[in-house]
DNA sequence: CTTCTGACA
DNA sequence: TGTCAGTA
């Protein structure tokens, strides 16, 4: 029948997504190539983006504007997914506190650790802006 | 007419 | 990244 998640339903072509995200089609295709987003394809091989994809791209757009490079964005996106998983697991099992939710402090610590692991603080420095807000 | 991939600057 | 080519 209909899709598992309405937000994962393949709906819009790249032109619409481009307007919604204020990203050029070129950029969107490039980010897909870098696996930051994975839109489905129509029978004619046309990309079909879901609300979920659009949200991700808007998030990417925001980070790009802040001067974060792709390596850094991948880290942030990875965290965002962890948050989604956390909230899903949370609503599914309202049991004990096995799947505890992350506090803001824990979230920042996790992000800082991931960023450091990816070696983002090397000489190249993935960000030109303020990622400092993430590791208060 | 819109999108796609590959390629060049 | 923008843009152009040649398709589907």
From TrEMBL:
The keyword Transcription appears for this protein: yes
Organism superkingdom: Bacteria
InterPro entries, alphabetized: DNA-bd_dom_put_sf, MerR-type_HTH_dom, MerR_fam
Keywords: DNA-binding, Repressor, Transcription, Transcription regulation
CDD domains hit by this protein: HTH_GlnR-like
Record bears the keyword Membrane: no
PANTHER family: HTH-TYPE TRANSCRIPTIONAL REGULATOR TNRA (PTHR30204:SF65), REDOX-CYCLING DRUG-SENSING TRANSCRIPTIONAL ACTIVATOR SOXR (PTHR30204)
Name of this protein: MerR family transcriptional regulator
Organism: Piscibacillus salipiscarius
Taxonomic classification: Bacteria, Bacillati, Bacillota, Bacilli, Bacillales
């Amino acid at each position: 029948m209909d899709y598992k998640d309405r937000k994962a339903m393949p709906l819009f072509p790249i032109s619409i997504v481009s307007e919604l995200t204020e990203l050029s089609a070129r950029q969107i295709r490039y980010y897909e190539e870098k696996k930051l987003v994975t839109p489905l394809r129509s029978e004619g091989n046309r990309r079909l983006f879901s609300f979920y994809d659009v949200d991700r791209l808007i998030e990417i757009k925001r980070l790009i504007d802040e001067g974060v490079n792709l390596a850094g964005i991948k880290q942030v996106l990875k965290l965002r997914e962890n948050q989604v998983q956390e909230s899903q697991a949370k609503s599914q099992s309202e049991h004990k506190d096995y799947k505890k939710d992350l506090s803001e402090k824990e979230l920042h610590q996790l992000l800082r650790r991931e960023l450091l692991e990816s070696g983002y603080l090397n000489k190249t420095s993935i960000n030109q802006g303020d990622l400092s807000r993430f590791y208060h």
